[in-house]
Amino acid sequence: MKTSWRSASLMASAAAVLALTTACGQGSGTSSVGSQNVGATAPAGGYGSVGAAGAGASASPSNGYGADGQNSGAQSAAAGKLAVSQNAELGKVLTDGNGMTLYRFDEDTAEPPKSNCDGDCAKAWPPVAANDAAAGAGIDKALLGEVTRADGTKQLTIAGWPAYRYAKDTKAGDVAGQGVGGKWFALAPDGKKATLASLPGLSVRKDPKLGDIVVDKNGMTVYRFLKDVAWPKPISNCTGSCLQKWPAVGIVSKDDTKGIEKKGLMGFTRPDGVKQMTVDCWPAYTFSGDTKPGDTNGQGVGGTWYAMAPDGKPVGAPKK
Q1: How many CB atoms lie within 10 A of CB 271?
Q2: How far is residue 83's CA from residue 74's CA, in Å, rounded to a whole number?
Q3: How far is CA 222 from the centre of its chain?
Q4: Quick check: 162 pLDDT over 90?
Q5: How, if at all, do strands 223-225 and 266-269 pair?
Q6: C-alpha distances in Å from residue 181, one per residue of 9, 34, 102, 107, 185
Q7: Count of helix runs (H) and strand runs (E) in the chain
Q8: pLDDT band at residue 42 under the 50/70/90 scheme
Q9: What is the mean pLDDT of residues 123-145?
Q10: Residue 256, Cα to own-chain centre: how many angstroms?
Q11: Longest Cα separation, the chain
Q12: What would the mean pLDDT of 195-221 be, rounded to a whole number?
């Protein structure tokens, strides 16, 4: 008996504009059919008889990939307990129980679920088996389903989208399949394409060297200038050419932030008319020298620029 996959509704929240204040102390294949919900409590699974894929693994038969970079055991690789990983360029990415990135294919369909990747395609993009799939933290178990492929096997679906691995991903965290052919994309936990566009206006990223730092909606590092003033009201001492090199972070609603200290989280209007966001009343900036999410090229520049912590403090700045 076929049961249809039930999509989960996404709740939209209205972002109110943060009020400006002057004082700071105020705080191709044949049709695949049949989609149904799969269990969310199955134990974490591995790659079974085809070996484990983890850190340090190489494209060899030991992890199920042949010497030609194709998977020799596509359906024997169980999904296990799905997890959410944070990628500096893509944001939240869905992975299997071994940390391997899961992908979706633009030529597939979600309503109804259907896989159009068979034959050689399925060798390069092994379908993720639906058996043993479980929802880990941050994943809505209602989004997990399965679709019957042309060969009769059951493939895991996320929000209706058939899930795949990529043969050239050899270790946990690899995203070599991202954007391949303009049709393959890493899966976000909600079944959409992984993208940083869904980040809040301001949020927190754990940098491997600096720890928790503030990032903007594009995942770019946010900085603080030691020559600025916070009290009794925010004053930016970065003007003219400085502001071109260190663009001011625009104002965002408090509701459009995550993990940031709310006290002193506000906006102000600079003398040049630019509206700028503050954290703990300290003006916030990005750095033109950072070219992609995860960059921290502005850290320590001139001994006056430092990544901003969630409480507004300058990360790694020398103690006075």
Answers
A1: 8
A2: 20
A3: 18
A4: yes
A5: unpaired
A6: 30, 28, 16, 11, 10
A7: 2, 18
A8: very low
A9: 95
A10: 17
A11: 70
A12: 90
